[in-house]
């Protein structure tokens, strides 16, 4: 049995997309993005009170990077994954975990634009700095695609594209892809995949109520 604990438009979307790409049987337990994640019953699954949590064969995992590595090793070691000994193993690991570099900046921007409920609590300086840092991440992806081609790895689509692609999906709410044509083309190809579309939130179940949040002027 595989059960994913998920909140729409959060990092757990990364695991949801991967499960759809793998084509395995699984269940989704959808949670509200609120204090209910701090309930004792949920903290047994993820002690940080965050999503995702993945129940699988009597065990429970959290942290998207760990979930990605385990699911790929188990179900698609040389398809969506790259097994130890593969010449692309190092690059695969790097890009799978680079998604968290993007996500930490997006999380800071989400706090500033969405979570803080009063304008006096928000910082235009933090907004601008974090949006600029997302831009630097885009530039790193642009440089990589200039070397690797259509996907992050030369051998083709993998869970590295899922991990980074989902992080970019979130980051686009705060930093435009317009200056990065290779990233835009890559992102367009990813978001056309049926498994990506399956992982999108239903109407009314979104964390972000706007497609883009511009940084304030200081």
Which features would summarize this protein structure in a list?
218 residues, 4 strands, 4-stranded mixed sheet, 8 helices, globular, 50% helix, alpha+beta
Task: Say how many strands there are.
Answer: 4
Structural class: alpha+beta
Residue-averaged pLDDT: 96
| Rg over CA atoms | 17 Å
Question: What is the element string, with H for helices and E for strands?
Answer: EHEHEEHHHHHH
Strand order of the largest sheet: 2-1-3-4
Helix content: 40-55%
Separate helix tally: 8
Share of β-strand residues: 5-15%
Global outline: globular
The major pleated sheet works out as:
4 strands, mixed
In terms of per-residue confidence, which ranges show pLDDT below 50 for 5 or more consecutive residues? none
Q: Alpha-carbon distance between the termini? A: 51 Å
Q: What would you say this structure looks like, in words?
A:
The mean pLDDT is 96. Helices cover 50% and strands 8% of the residues. It contains eight helices and four strands, in the order E-H-E-H-E-E-H-H-H-H-H-H. It is α+β, with helices and mostly antiparallel strands. It has helices at residues 12-22, 40-43, 64-75, 89-115, 124-148, 159-171, 181-191, 194-199, and strands at 2-6, 27-30, 53-56, 59-62. The chain is globular. Helix 1 (12-22) links the parallel strand 1 (2-6) and strand 2 (27-30).
